[in-house]
Amino acid sequence: MGYKDTVNLPKTDFPMRASLPQREPGMIKRWDGMKVYKKMLERRRNAPLFVLHDGPPYSNGHIHLGHTLNKVVKDIIVKYKYLSGYRTPFVPGWDNHGMPIENIVIKEFKGDKSKIREIRKRCREFAGEWIDIQREEFRRLGVFGDWDNPYLTMSREYEGREILFFADLVEKGYVYRGYMPIHWCPVCETALALAEIEYKEKESPSIWFTMEGDGITAVVWTTTPWTIISNVALAFHPDYEYVVVKVKDKNYVLARELLEKNANLLGWENFEV
Question: Given phi > 0 = left and psi -120 to 50 = alpha, else beta, which region is 111?
Fold first, then answer.
């Protein structure tokens, strides 16, 4: 008799290896065949409604960990609310407009922007191709939703509704023409959102210098020392508080809030305010 035969071990039908890459697709296929999502909605037909709006991913590449976190957290919330007694329809969607798609498509046209109709058609096709790919990747995560009827920002119906809502804003006086500074991309020939701006860090020279007056000296710090020769005035902020600091035989004026910092920086040990 072997040693293992003398030990009372629990027995289970579960396999020793999970083999999830092989098993999960079968589970999802089984859920789809059972129409689990549809049955969930039918079972809660008269229940209180809970709707979680799906902020859409962009249809221009494979999903990444950010997409995964986003969709899985939403799926957890939706399923939790369902188990709490709510009817929880979840309609996924995709954002199909923007420069990432256009930039890729224009490369396919070798930079030729004259074929506008063809470019627009190809952009729509490109977005559609990635919608299909991402849809399967999201379903592979086990996320429940109306994947056969998603909302698409490039659909004619969606665009038409946008125009109607915009017209409503115009009629209510919320839309006006004016001027404001914007970030502009000369390559893309379009305005940019703040989130799209990337700043290249650069070390620039900075210096301290003083401007002399009648019995008083103003302390100035600048990151553009090459402009000093053209400076004709020094501005003071009307809402800031300034102090005059006597160091030896000179009176310096500077912002009260920066007094301690500047005193340490400039090596002022004995001074009078």
Answer: left
Token readout for 99 is: 């420069």
- Neighbour count for residue 139 (Cβ, 10 Å): 18
DSSP 11: -
Contacts for 35 with CB less than 8 Å, ≥ 6 apart: none
Look up residue 221 and give its amino acid.
W
Domain boundaries in the chain?
21-180+185-192, 207-266
CA distance 188 to 113: 11
167 or 273, which is more confident?
A: 167
Fold entry, domain 21-180+185-192? Rossmann fold (3.40.50)
- Reported as a single tens digit per residue, the pLDDT across 61-88 is 999 999 999 999 999 999 999 999 999 9
* Least confident interval from 23-27, 171-175, 181-185, 218-222: 218-222
| Radius of gyration from C-alpha coordinates of the chain | 32
- Backbone φ and ψ for 169, nearest 5 degrees, come out as -65, -40
